[in-house]
Amino acid sequence: MCKVRWKVVEFHRELKQLIGIELCQCRKERIQRNHIACAILVWLRLKDLARYTNQTIYQMKHGLLSNYLVQQLKRPAVPIFIV
Predict the structure, then answer these.
(1) For 50-83, what is each residue's pLDDT tens digit?
(2) Rounded to the nearest 10 degrees, how much is the dihedral formed by the CA atoms of 40, 44, 49, 51?
(3) Residue 7 has pLDDT above 80, yes or no
(4) Angle of helix 29-53 versus helix 57-74 axis, rounded to 10
(5) What is the pLDDT of residue 83?
(6) Whole-Å CA distances, 16 to 10, 36, 39, 43
(7) Model confidence over 31-48: pLDDT tens digits?
């Protein structure tokens, strides 16, 4: 029973910390459901990739963000104009 509870707690924590499910500012119920469904799909994909690469889901997200940050520092998508 404790193993099952721990998995639920782990799932909830990962959704909040990694996916940002609580950041949705939508007021309509249908849009909130869509946001939650998309967040769960993202979580499932990250979980699969983490399992495939023998990493944790936290390492996966950090790696993705690190790669994006390095790319943007080399070639910014938005040009910076100094006035």
Answers:
(1) 899 898 888 888 887 788 888 888 888 877 776 6
(2) 130
(3) yes
(4) 100
(5) 64
(6) 10, 11, 10, 10
(7) 889 988 988 998 898 889
CB 42 within 8 A of CB 19: yes
Q: DSSP string of the chain?
A: -HHHHHHHHHHHHHIIIII-GGG----SHHHHHHHHHHHHHHHHHHHHHHHHHT--HHHHHHHHHHHHHHHHHHS-SS-----
Q: List the one residue out of 31, 29, 57 whose CA is nearest residue 43.
A: 57
Token pair of 59, please?
Answer: 């390492």
Q: Which residue has the tokens 């963000």?
A: 65
